[in-house]
Specification:
Layout lengths: L7 E8 L2 E8 L6 E8 L5 E3 L2 H19 L3 H16 L1 H6 L5 H42 L1
Antiparallel strand pairs: 1-2, 2-3, 3-4
Length: 142
Amino acid sequence: MSHKATTIVYLKRRRKDFVSAYLIRLPNRAPRKIDFEFKIGGDSLITMPFRTLLQEEMDNLERTYREALMDADRRDAFDSLLRAWSSEQGAMSYARVPTALDVMLLTAVVDNRRLIEDLFDQIGVMRSQLEKIDGKLEKLLD
């Protein structure tokens, strides 16, 4: 049957409340291991820890997307996003956003906004310095 299935998952119990899932075949993805936690009692609920999801998504993007970027400046920008995502894992784990990638993009937008505001502050300082220089030049020319 393995030649007919598009997805094959092997589950192996590690502890009473902990199971490892080995994704043996998955469309467009390499085989890998994922850890799940089970809620015992009542209705069974399978959840994957957010930090595991986030780390896997970051590793996957670094391995595939970053390596495909042709421009070195874009690779540096992506590395900056990786640092932002790593430093804000706590905030991202509390966000009520459907997927890890969505919350990663939200964090990237917030980080970009911070950088834009820093640039506006720098432009304001440079504008002020230019006005002082312009005023001095006018005095010298008069």
